Amino acid sequence: MKVLIAPLDWGLGHATRCVPIIRALRAAGHEVIPCASGAGLRLLRAEFPDLDTRALPSYAMRYTKSRALLPLWLLLQLPLFLLSAWRDARAAARLARETGAGLVISDGRYGFHAAAVPAVFVSHQLDILPPGPRALRALLRPALRALNRRALREFREVWVPDFPGPRNLSGALGHPRYGSREDPSRILYIHPLCRFRPDDLPWDRAFAPPDPAPAIDVLALLSGPEPQRTLLEEILVRAFEDLPGTRVIVRGLPRSVPGGVRGMVPSDSVFQIQAGLNVFDHLPQERLLACLVGARHVVCRSGYTTMMELAGLGKGNVLLVPTPGQPEQEYLAAQARGVGLAAWRDQDALRTSADIAEGLREAETLPGFGALFSVRAMGTSAPGGDWDLAGWIRRHPLLQGRVSL
């Protein structure tokens, strides 16, 4: 079967978490046609150079530097969002006709579905947290729930990349406490998506990392929408200058940006971690995995894709820095800290190397993401059981042939 898969282009997270889905689909014998835009398009072309990757119009949403202005800023961009969804629907219909696709998978792109083809939506947010002050959030949240529920009706199924039980990563976002009116058979928990884990590795088994790995004292992974990605980069570059040991910053930019920063290693150079500060625009999967395995400490956003990859590796000593004004990331960071997976700090509180060091010291006192695989630490068995993505994809009814609507 031919399968269209289209991730949202707000940062790299949506494209990154589509990587294991694409691998599992290909292993099951399906022909995958990635459809993306922006940095996500470049990432998928780099990861799967042999696939017929199609370009989509960009959503082109940007965040503001001011938290106070963010609700108004996003509201002003609502017409752009609706226009992008309309353009996605036209693109999906055209691509489905051109390719003869039997299934459409949309990760975060609400408009990417075609009337004649079954469609699946991938999201960890069945409940969406609006930005702004608490009173405004309370006012907007019921409306957003209703709008989200209505938008999801266009899709045959919703795949939630999280564990199905009470021990999970997304908390109330993926497991709404208000009670869902959706048919439960439409909501499928496909476990976290981690591109570093083998797709046939059951979630009750810890990942065995490759050896050897470079020795890194602190690894910083940047991601997310502008201008906040750049703002955090500027903070970390200044702070890392005064930290001891080997430091690595991965900027999250698949295409090099002119100008650079001090300590940058050219993206086309031989991969080698040197003493002092190392800065890379982007690292391919195997090199990024080596850095994660070799890092004693990790500083990163609390984007959900990053959280899933940390969980997949069982990583410890993690300091999360939510994107300012993104209540989803603030919630996920607090959720992770509450169960001992990681420490977190507000971006505005990180101004010096001492601030970073303090957060990392707190992270060292916590069980870390490895607790997800530890019976002793969590008091029960691993939350994923013997479930594996590759086997689930092979058996899924929507992928057994063209399904009539």
> Taking strands numbered 1, 2, ... along the chain, how are they ordered across the largest sheet?
3-2-1-4-5-6-7
Helix content: 25-40%
Describe the biggest sheet? 7 strands, parallel
- The chain-level structural class is alpha/beta
| CATH fold-level topology of the largest domain | Rossmann fold
Number of helices: 12
| SSE string, helices as H and strands as E | EHEHEHHEEHEEEHEEHEHEHEHHH
- CATH superfamily of the largest domain, called what? Glycogen Phosphorylase B
Compute the number of structural domains: 2
Distance between the termini: 16 Å
Calculate the mean pLDDT score and round it.
85
> Tally of extended strands?
13
CATH architecture of the largest domain: 3-Layer(aba) Sandwich
Radius of gyration (Å)? 20 Å
- Characterize the overall form: globular
CATH class of the largest domain: Alpha Beta
Strand portion: 5-15%
Low-pLDDT residue spans: 257-262, 375-381
What key phrases describe this protein's structure?
405 residues; alpha/beta; Rossmann fold; 2 domains; six-stranded parallel β-sheet; 35% helix; 14% strand; globular
What does this structure look like?
- By secondary structure, the chain is an alpha/beta fold.
- The chain folds into 2 domains: 2-199 and 386-399, Glycogen Phosphorylase B (Rossmann fold, 3-Layer(aba) Sandwich), CATH 3.40.50; 216-378, Rossmann fold, CATH 3.40.50.2000.
- Helices cover 35% and strands 14% of the residues.
- The protein has 12 helices and 13 strands.
- The strands form 2 sheets. A 7-stranded parallel β-sheet has the order 3-2-1-4-5-6-7, with helices on both faces.
- β8, α6 (228-240) and β9 form a beta-alpha-beta unit.
- The longest helix has 22 residues, at 78-99.
- 45% of the residues are buried.
